[in-house]
Specification:
Elements: H1 26-40, E1 48-54, E2 60-66, E3 69-70, E4 75-80, H2 84-91, E5 94-101, E6 106-116, H3 119-128, H4 131-139, H5 149-162, E7 174-188, E8 196-202, E9 208-213
Helix pairs in contact: 4-5
């Protein structure tokens, strides 16, 4: 099979990214770009991001998860700590997050280290989830081989009966990760493939160094 995709082309011309109009802190620019996309109103899940880790088998692996919070400290997502990604982060906390927002011809790439979120914060988010999502997190041995979908559905029915009318506690194996950024790169599509790339790197004095990269 051979498919030539060379004619898939796009002209990027919506915005520009210049050193003269960006803040000193990359998290402020991320916040602006995120809400620019939300205001644009053309994305179902603007918080969808790719999380890349180095697996226990030595291979890198990337998957899409949902960003649930971002603060001055970094970026928060939730998962099963016993999942493939959870085990990979436990072994090597260096991760890469990336957001691609084609509606605004923008991309953000974040390199950082992940650490488990405080238990009370994981508790608070878990309590805010719909009951079905809570039970789904409990019943699923994420990333493990299962006999069939029916096995999962039967387990869910049993949990629904067990917790009917009761509070559903957060399992110890499920919670959040906070990714503390060390490098944040912003990409803005421009004409003639001369895209704008601005990279912020965290320095020892906790200030950010900003540089322009060639496209």
């Amino acid at each position: 099979m051979h498919e030539d995709l060379g004619n898939y082309r796009k002209v990027y011309q919506k915005e520009q990214l210049l050193e003269t109009n960006v803040p000193e802190n990359p998290l402020e620019l991320f916040r602006k770009w995120f809400y620019d996309l939300e205001a644009h109103g053309s994305s179902d899940e603007p918080n969808a991001m790719t999380v890349a880790t180095k697996g226990l088998d030595g291979f890198p692996k990337a998957r899409v998860v949902l960003l649930k919070r971002f603060t001055a400290e970094g970026f928060v997502f939730y998962t099963n700590y016993n999942s493939e990604k959870g085990k990979a982060i436990a072994a090597d906390p260096r991760v890469c997050l990336s957001f691609f927002w084609p509606q605004l011809e923008r991309q953000v790439i974040i390199k950082g280290t992940a650490e488990k979120l405080a238990e009370n914060l994981s508790d608070g988010y878990f309590e805010s989830r719909p009951d079905g999502s809570k039970l789904g997190a409990i019943v699923s041995p994420q990333s493990e081989v299962v006999a069939s979908r029916e096995t999962l559905e039967e387990g869910l029915r049993e949990l629904e009966e067990k917790y009917k009318g009761k509070e559903i506690p957060r399992p110890a194996f499920w919670g959040g990760f906070l990714v503390r950024p060390q490098s944040v790169e912003f990409w803005q599509g421009r004409p003639n493939r001369l895209h704008d790339r601005i990279r912020y790197e965290l320095q020892e004095d906790w200030n950010w160094k900003m540089q322009r990269l060639a496209p």
